[in-house]
Specification:
There is one protein chain. Helix 2 runs parallel beside helix 3 (117-126) and helix 10 (227-241) packs across helix 11. This protein has twelve helices and seven strands. The chain has two domains: 38-134 and 245-290, Nucleotidyltransferase, domain 5 (2-Layer Sandwich), CATH 3.30.420; 136-225, no CATH class. The protein has a five-stranded mixed β-sheet with strand order 5-4-3-6-7, with helices on both faces. The protein has helices at residues 17-36, 90-102, 117-126, 136-144, 152-161, 174-191, 196-203, 206-210, 220-223, 227-241, 249-264, 274-287; strands at residues 6-9, 13-16, 44-54, 63-72, 77-84, 110-113, 131-134.
Amino acid sequence: MTRCGTWRLGDQAAISKSTVSAICGQLKEEYQAGATRRLDGVVLDYLFLDASFFRMHPGSPAEPVLAAWGITTGGKPAFIGLAPGSGESADAWGDFLADLKDRGLGSPLLVISDGAPGLIAAIEQAFPRALRQRCVIHRARNVLAKVPAGMQAEIKDAYWALFDTGDLTTQPGPRLAELVDHRITEIAAKYSATYPAAMKCLLADREGLTAYLRFPAEHQHRVRHSNFIERTFGETRRRTKVIGRLPGETSCLTLTWAVLDRASRGWRGLTMTSDGLRLLQDLRRSLLDPPRQLRPRTVTATRDDERPGNVSATA
């Protein structure tokens, strides 16, 4: 800081305290507006959910900040929302998702997340008709953590080979998911005797590992993990590391909002091909707008003397 009250960034740049204050005020307004904006016009195919921990209250340990971003039906990335959480419990995530729904967010086709039990429970409660994809990168870490270091390379290669569908001619859909699920069964049988804990981990929530295979092939590598938002959270933590503890909850949320909002503008969208669009439309109809089952017609039995053409004996 110089004697005249400016902050210097390098040899040439200088920012006054009043400028810093004005920037912080602007970011706070952006966060408050974004945290309450209506979401009726946002129609998502994919919704990504993740949390990161920051120290934002005096004398308290790091606390979670919950975040959501998605990809619209037009293939564009969209930063959806951000909120503090009392933890990663089902209640905390449930309140966050309920707020998004109250502001008009409809159900996506696929929700991508890690394996936090509270988060999974909240997703299934908030969006019961959506499919749920468990991040394959998080699951790889979970599995490898239960394997000795000397065998991790072999298990890692075998794990990622499960999801290599380049040699298959099967089109995206339930059948492709079944084929990969069969591979999971085979690798578990091969290694269960040696690494039972790792294979038990692999087999848990196995349907969640293959949900992405029902979606367009050109989207699959992008929607099978949640690393995009995780990397951005890492950038936020890097920027706040020099601070140690942030001045308060509002400051933490404002800074995190600013980083995620600006990062999301640089995220790549998804290519929408004609075949992919047809598949997504079919999934939307089958998952979110299934046809109503017609009620069977009730046939009322009639007595013989009530049938047309019968003449009463007393006539």
